[in-house]
Amino acid sequence: DFDGANTGAISNNSSTNILPAWSPSGAIAYTSFMRGNPDLYVTGGAGGRPKQLAKYRGMNTGAAFSPDGSKIALTLSKDGNPEIYVINASDGSVLKRITDNRAIDTSPTWSPDGSQLAFVSDRNGGPQIFVVSSNGGGATQVSFNGTYNTTPAWSKKKGKSIIAYTTRDGSNYDIVTLDLGTKAMTRITQQMGNNEEPSFSPDGRAIAFARAGQGVFIANADGTGTPVKVWSGSATGIDWGPAPAQ
Questions:
Q1: pLDDT by residue (tens digit) across 132-188?
Q2: Of residues 245, 209, 246, 242, the one with CA closest to residue 68
Q3: Of 94, 141, 95, 146, which Cα lies nearest the Cα of 120?
Q4: How many angstroms separate the CA atoms of 128 and 216, rounded?
Q5: C-alpha radius of gyration, the chain, whole number
Q6: CA distances in angstroms from 107 to 130, 212, 241, listed in the order given
Q7: pLDDT the model gives residue 244
Q8: What whole-number distance in Å separates Cα of residue 108 and Cα of residue 129?
Q9: Which of 3, 152, 194, 207 could form a disulfide with 165 if both were Cys (CB 3.0 to 4.6 A apart)?
């Protein structure tokens, strides 16, 4: 639960299982090495037998479901270089290659209306956040604060174009948000340890993130107040699930 209660394991194997992503209907996609290669699997939100969805040569990582749940954006390296692709969420077939660049492109996240994707690329040097149409085409760099910006998460709130991401500020990693319309940047954390992998709540009012060596925290998305710890321990791959059905 979002308050740290009722924790439970979704995967049940001795392999490395990383980067979980909730679907709008409550399924979970994740990357697992259970068959040797980093392949993409999908299981129910309460666990159960996983379905192998994408098993292309090389990486099948960083899944993100489209707002309607019919598609998944992810990083595939099947053609030799890590690129962003969109696949069918039901059978794993490739629908579209989004990027085509010699750089490393990772960590896609969908806009609330499904028309755009934000992702990380080092095509201009250090890792930065870019935005591209979900049909492909030219990508636009949107992060310019420093030389290290990663793990973008697009607010799920319709009518807003706000991206949260990790930025390196001196010796620390912090969470910031960027309003793509106004270009206004808001600090969510500052000099509070190393904070990474933000994920918005379904209503866009809160952000969950991991703080290295401490656990999972939740903060107000407008930057007010102090982040609250909801789970203690080492944590990565934070993703906030869909709102409960009414």
A1: 999 999 999 999 998 999 999 999 988 779 999 999 978 899 999 999 999 999 999
A2: 242
A3: 141
A4: 24
A5: 17
A6: 10, 19, 17
A7: 80
A8: 10
A9: 152
Alpha-carbon separation of residue 179 from 109, 125, 186 (angstroms): 15, 23, 9
Q: What domains, with CATH codes, occur in the chain?
A: 17-200 (2.120.10.30)
| Residue-by-residue DSSP string for 147-198 | S-EEEEEE---TT--EEEEEEEETTEEEEEEEETTT--EEES-SSSS-EEEE
Instruction: Name the residue among 71, 119, 76 with its Cα closest to residue 97.
Output: 76
Alpha helices by DSSP H, listed for 111-197, are: none
DSSP label at residue 16: -
For the question of whether the overall pTM of this predicted structure is more than 0.85, the answer is yes
What is the token pair recorded at 245? 């059905």
Residue 198 to residue 207: CA distance in whole angstroms: 6
Token pair of 237, please?
Answer: 């791959």
Pairing, β 116-121 against β 128-133: antiparallel
H or E element, residue 119: strand 116-121
Evaluate whether 221 touches 207 at the Cβ level (below 8 Å).
yes
